[in-house]
Amino acid sequence: MWRRSLQLQVVTSTLVISVIVVVVLGTFLFGQINKSVVDSSQQSSVSDAFADRLQIADALAPDTDEQTKTTDTAKSGAANPLDEVMDAVTGSGEDGSKKRYDVLILNPATPGQSRASGSVVRSSVPPNLRAHLQRYIRNHEYGKPVGNVQQIKFPGENQPRLTFVVGGVVHVPTSGQNYEVYHFFPFNEEEELLTNVRLAIVVVGLGLVLLLAAIAYLVARQVVSPVRLARQAAERLAAGKLDERLKVRGEDDLARLANSFNEMAANLALKIHQLEELSQVQRQFVSDVSHELRTPLTTVRMAADLLYDAREDFDPMASRSAELMQAQLERFEAMLADLLEISRYDAGAATLDLDPVDVRDVVLRAIGDSEALAERHATRFELRLPNEPCMAEIDDRRVERILRNLLFNAIEHGEGRDVVVTVGADRDAVAIAVRDHGIGLRNGEDTLVFDRFWRADPSRARTIGGTGLGLAISREDATLHGGWLQAWGQPGEGSQFRLTLPRTAGADLKGSPLSLVPPEIEMRRTWRGAMTPVLLPASADGGGHDDD
Amino acid sequence: MTTIRRLGFAVAIVLAVVAAGTGCTVIPVTGPYMVGDDGTGGDPLNKPFQRMIAIPPQPNWGPEDTIKGLQAAMAAYADDPSILPQYLTPEARSKWSAAGPVKVIEDAFEIAYPTPRDGTETVLQVTLKAQWVASIGTDDAYAPTAGAWDGGTFELVKTQQGGYLVNKLPAGLLLTNSDVVRAYRPANLYYLNADMPDRLVVDRVRLRMKPTESFARTILERLLEEPTTALRDAVTTSFPEDTTIESIRWNEERVLVNLSGPLDPLDLSAEAALRAQIRHSFADNDVAKGRIIEIQVDGETYAVDRPDPADPWLDDGGDTAYFVDNGAVHFMGKEGPAGAVPGAAGEQRAGYTDFALSKEETALIAAKTSTGISMAKLAQDGRWQEVIQGTELTPPTFHRDGSLWTYDNENGVLLRYDPTSGRGPERVAAPKLAGLDVARLRIARDGVRVSVTTGENTVQIGALISTPEGLVLGNFRSLTTTEMGDEIVDVTWSDDEHLLVLVESKAGQILSEINVGDGATVGVPLKDRLASLAALDDRVLGEVKTDKETKIVELNQDRQTWVPKVESNAGSPLFPLG
What we know:
The complex is a heterodimer. Chain A contains twelve helices and twelve strands. By secondary structure, chain A is an alpha+beta fold. In chain A, strand 4 (161-172) and strand 5 (177-186) form a beta hairpin. By secondary structure, chain B is mainly β. In chain B, helix 5 packs across helix 6 (271-283). Chain B: Residues 216-306 form the GerMN domain.
């Protein structure tokens, strides 16, 4: 699925890349927002804390004029300056409004000089922050505030709160007093805001990834659909539908591809048509030539017959010439007959004269015809026929011719060894295999043997005067029956030709009752494979396929 | 390229430019558009406050610092009780208790050593000298107190590490005035009139702020308890006993009060009174004012109270002002005289003084004569009729139930005349008044509090206690005492908790508005000498007598200036009740 679907590949790649991009961008974006929110909050908190510390310092260390005033007012019952400034800083006064933060003023050296607002207590101060401030006091450094973000659990609250604590020292030079001032800024709003932002980024990122995947799917579909149509059209074209064309929409690259495809298909159809025409002309020419040659050949034959019959009256030289001429004329005639026969096939004029026939009889007749030749080559036939009749709807004349061809071929190439003829049948088909033990076929020759005028060794003379068209005609005969004619051979192992015919004319063949590879070869191969698998040759022999 | 494609391309460019332009604007300029309210419609349920943070005793502290530290630890005791014991020796720790009234002294206290010291003593006696400011009782009542506080004797013991521990100290907490201002808030609580539970009565307390709970909860928790001793048995509450607060939560527009206890969610007989108590106790203390209050019982809605300007629970019996012209009672409109009242009371007549009006619903008027107290209906057929006889009666005052009250100094009895009973005046028990010279007696508009002027210079506040035997005037406590030689000219209720007291001193007249709950006094500037007063909430009317004529002036809203209201022939300003 993955290897076959370009669309899936595009969508998956887009998903992976967009997830990476979204994660990286989201992380960066959240980092930036986080930083800016926290920074601005801390900045404003530090400013507030600084302003408050200034106010506290100012209130606790009034200048001389104000001191006089304070003394006056103190008599009339004015409040403690620490209380006053705490009221102002924390909004605890009469009309004060609640501040967003709490304040703790700690002066452990002087009684009654420590204050707090809200629920802050002394233990709310982070110990390290307190230690920092106490170090400042020891070193007489009063101007440096210290910040600390921490989860602090305040009295009366169930959960600790994220709090930004700013600590600073207010030093009162006139009295030498040091006040540790701590501001507690709640950061839960910022935390909530950032949690919402993070959630939004995650949701938007997820949406974006899905959107990109959907876009990639649509775009890929837009591109892949025409490509898929082109593939289907090419497949149909390859299957022989030469009028297959693509629809051309627009002017884009895909449209140009479709145009090119259509042009290619049109040119291909034209060329094929031209070749067919040429082939037709050639066939017609061969047919015409064959016909035209018959008449003069008949005359020549008649003359040659006369000469042949009177050969004994000739001197030996002329007598031998007459014999040769006779023999070559016979071959010429046979060749002309074969050419005419194959011309009929080419012209599509060959027809079958079907009858239900017992194939065993046909085989016996063909063997009978071949016995004379076999004797000349000292070749014996070994027949393996089933006991039951093997009935099939065939044109027995053509099948007999096929068998004759196969037997002549086996005798010619059998080098005097036995030729085995086997007949097999099953429910749908009958098969005849002709096995010789001659030089065999080289790799690839099992298909070439059916080509017209093909010979395995061009230097080798034809001993039985074959025309070179016999197997080609046999194959045409077999095809006309809807059957198969196949060859197997191995150098040194001989060869076997198998004719498979359907029992009922026109029925499709699904297999053959006989194996194309001879059984003994098959057994030997299996035996070798079981014993010494490592010694097997790298490539299979020319036995080719087996349709069993 | 086709025309359509060109057009599409152009549109895309325009859209891209617009999008980019919008993207450059961080906050786009828009509006006007409707915005949501941010919930500032109501008062918060919390009040910010600051607290004292106590510091444990330090080894380098001397006796003075130790006493100051101890006092600061007392101020912080309610929030953090762990520090104070660190100042005490084990013996003192076992004896001392924070229970009892809280003593409040002036901030500037002085530490004295009764015996000379040379710095080597291990045990030291120290006296704390301060001016007494007030005391806060166990009932949370704030009672101002004057004079020097002389109970502050402490015994300090020097420790081996240096520093001192306290071995002996006065019982209870000792706070400075600043400590109280810092950590306490005055609060008005509303209870129900025990005799007529259709009217709320205000009770004033000082509540200690708690950092871990809202002020609303502090108020409500105190409301569930008994009133202060000044109102004990005189008021009642709609909360059943053992009612507790589960939670108080709030959002922008609603406050959810979840109660628990014997309140029956199906019994709504006390629902209106309960709503009124909570609503007014919150609103009068600027808590949750303007918000909807939903009262729940164990999480189930019991009542929902919405802000309603027409509130019957603080009915004052009418707000029409009246004045008297030669014995004839007249209405006073916004612009001045608005005609005489109907009936005999509207006719000029000599010998009638010290008029008093009932609430407008019952429309009765009473006046003192040389032989007693007469009463008339404010109707066309109204005739003066003497209802109480006596020559030493105090000026009449009406209760909101329609009855007429006076104190008979001759017989030393408090008299109540109910016009609807058909009987003569009946006696009301007032044991604390026995033997006193009662100059004036005025019942507040809430029907519970009574101001009694005894002698020439003391005002006491009592309450009408509802007992099985009937009403009793009791729970007295002194409100104000003028200096010797000064004379209280007139006393009148302005609202349920404030009493206006007009004093004739040697330096001139002084008009003070005194909070009867905590004695807080605010001076009101005077322009002319006033002969009598009448007040209702923010309106204060005064009678100015000159040689030529008598006129009525009214105190401005700014409470600084007086403006003439009726220029001539007008005296004895009156409001119903009070």
